[in-house]
Structure formats: structure tokens, C-alpha cells
Amino acid sequence: MGGRQVLATRRLLAGALDGELPEHRLVSAARSVVAELGSPDRLPELIAELASGEGDPEGCARLSYRHVLGFDKLLLIDGGPRHMLRAHVWHPGAGGVGEEDIHNHRSPLASYVVRGRLAMELYEVCGEGGDDAGAAGDADAQVGGIAAVRYEESLAERSADWVLEPAGAARLRLTHVGQYAAGSSYALPAHTLHRAWCDTDAPTVTLFLETGAERRRHTDVFTAAGPHPGAVAKVPLDVRGYLEALSDLAEQLRAL
Fold first, then answer.
1. What would the pLDDT profile of 19-48 be if each residue is shown by its tens digit?
2. What is the DSSP letter of 144?
3. What is each CA distance from 88 to 69, 135, 165, 202, 214, in whole angstroms?
4. What is the mean pLDDT of residues 233-248?
5. What is the Cα 120 distance to its own chain's centre?
6. Residue 180: partners with Cβ closer than 8 Å, 6 or more residues away
7. How far apart are CA 13 and CA 82, in angstroms?
8. At what angle do helices 23-37 and 4-17 cross, to 10 degrees?
9. What is the spatial distance between Cα 69 and Cα 93, in angstroms, rounded to a whole number?
């Protein structure tokens, strides 16, 4: 299903990522693949082909929406449980319900910065408190960590909405701060805690690859910005909106 670029992309993804690879090799392969697909020689043609209606616009539109972290999430290639290729369009200052959240993922990921610049912070858990957020804050001041509330995030059984279950207090330690400009890439194992945001005054575009057949049942979300609602609805794009978003993205890529 799809035109020449869609079929070539599916073949590349399957050839590099299908199979029983250990996580460290999967992370490395995903980073190489997403950098190849994100190159100026390949990505504009793929986006233009998808914007013309090739591929699976109806299926991809159902899984495309404004993410709670504040970016537009456009599914390009749905490879089932083994890989999903998406374009993320980050708008400066757009914000979102979870824009300050620190989180991990259900499976290994890789991302290539096509346009603009992302900032990223990596974290690790350095201790967990009880139910008393004030006590956690006092301990935080002593050890230099960041006091946060922890949630387990999963998908609702009968919808695609996010469900957030409180899982107590925690402290996080910042371990890395980085900036990723256009032409750079990164890859992370599934459990890596991180936060990313648009680091320029113009939109940032990234090509994002989620991979791995063994998906975790939930992700971990940490916030220091106050309590979250118990559920956050996903509002998918319709086909027309999805194709218009791809057309806008294709125009941005032609201007590079």
C-alpha cells in the first residue's frame, strides 16, 4: 500500500528493525535508520507522497493529534508493533497539559532533528518519598534532587485516551542537558527518563521512530508542576486535517 517512497521506507524499516534484536542493538539501528530517512534527499519526497494520499491516510489520521507535551504528532508509517515512524512538529510557546513532564517510553526510540532545535534533559530517580509532598520537598532540599509526583501512564481500554494513575512521590536527579540542532539525532532505551522542548523561536520538526515488539504496559511520568487530571483525551485528526498538516509540513521542508 503506497507509492514508491512509502514502499521504500517500509522496506528499510523492516530490514533494519524486524527480528529479535537486543535493546542496545535496536537503539543503534533505529538511530541509523531515522537519520537516513530524515535526510533532505529522502524526507521531503516521502512527506509529499503521503500528502498526496498515498500510504494509509485514514489509519494514520486516527493516530495523529496534538500531543499533551505540546507538539503535533503525525503518524507517517504504521509498522504495527515493531515500528512506527512519525513527524513531530514543535511550536514554540505552544505548551500543553504535560509540557513540563519528565517521562519515559514503552519501547526504544530514535529521533532526527529535521528543522530547528530541541533541548533535552535526562534524569534518573534518586529516591522516593511517601504521600507527604512537603516532606519530600524538605528531603529534596537536602540532597539536591527535584521533588516530583509520579504517575503510571497507560491507554484506556476502550479508547486511545491517556490514563494517569498516581504512584507516589519521588525525587529525580538531572544527569544530562543537551541541545540537538538540525541534522543531529539521538536514541534512547525505553526506560530513559527525559524531557524535551522546542528551543527556538520558529517551529522545530523532528522525525521520530518508535520501535521494538516488546512494549511496556505503562510509562512513568513525573511532574513538579502540580497534579494531573486522571485522564487526558486524545483528539485525532480527520483525514482532511491530516493531509493538510502533511501538505504544510511538505511546504516547510521545501523551504529548507
1. 888 999 999 999 999 999 999 999 999 999
2. T
3. 11, 38, 26, 14, 23
4. 93
5. 12
6. 111, 113, 117, 118, 119, 120, 186
7. 9
8. 160
9. 11
